[in-house]
Design goal:
Blueprint lengths: L7 H28 L5 H7 L2 E4 L8 E6 L2 E7 L2 H8 L30 E5 L10 E3 L14 E4 L4 E3 L20 E5 L2 E4 L7
Antiparallel strand pairs: 1-9, 2-3, 3-4, 5-6, 6-7, 8-9
């Protein structure tokens, strides 16, 4: 038996209002949980591009910066260093960088946008150690005919001043060239090589 005094429009209104309030409460309660799934500012910063001022970097000097938790070496090469690179093509495993990781603009003899500057990850491609920067006349050079470069004392891998791996060492490929671009002659951006639009 149906009660004829029931206001059906009021019942519909109350049902709709309760549904809206309940839905809003559910959304408001879920926001903190959803927010915890977003990466933190620190996490975002780890992968963010890094600006590097290279105005004080003198020829023959190396600067180390961190990008994505890895050391990035920025080496300003001298004319003599560039000449030594060209003379070692027969001694390195991948002289044209065909089997190594680098952007297309670094797939050249010097593995760089500008010959003077080498930008590579300071991580050996063998087991991830960090090789040492050893100059041509350095005390800890790995051989008498050493022309400068990077030497990993952990397992003996050697790389020239273009980050190219020598033949006969454990490292399988050249040092990795990260994406980068010059924002100005004295400012480098590591981690982004996109062209301006």
């Amino acid at each position: 038996m149906e009660n004829s005094n029931v206001d059906k429009s009021r019942r519909r209104f109350l049902t709709a209002a309760a549904t809206v309030v309940g839905g809003a409460g559910t959304v408001a309660g879920a926001i903190p949980f959803i927010a915890t799934m977003a990466p933190s500012a620190k996490t975002k910063a780890v992968g963010a591009p890094v600006e590097v001022d290279i105005s004080n970097l003198q020829p023959g000097e190396r600067l180390i910066k961190e990008w994505q938790g890895k050391p990035v070496w920025i080496l300003r090469r001298t004319k003599e260093m560039l000449e030594d690179i060209a003379s070692q093509d027969a001694d390195v495993r991948d002289p044209a960088s065909d089997a190594s990781a680098q952007p297309d603009y670094a797939k050249n003899e010097y593995r760089a946008r500008e010959d003077e500057y080498l930008i590579v990850l300071g991580v050996c491609t063998h087991l991830g150690c960090s090789p040492k920067f050893v100059l041509k006349d350095g005390d800890n050079r790995p051989s008498e005919d050493w022309k400068g470069g990077f030497f990993c004392p952990c397992h003996g891998s050697r790389f020239d001043l273009a980050g190219r791996v020598f033949k006969g060492v454990p490292a399988p490929t050249n040092l990795v060239v990260p994406p980068y671009k010059f924002l100005s002659p004295s400012l480098l951006l590591i981690g982004d090589d996109s062209e301006a639009v």
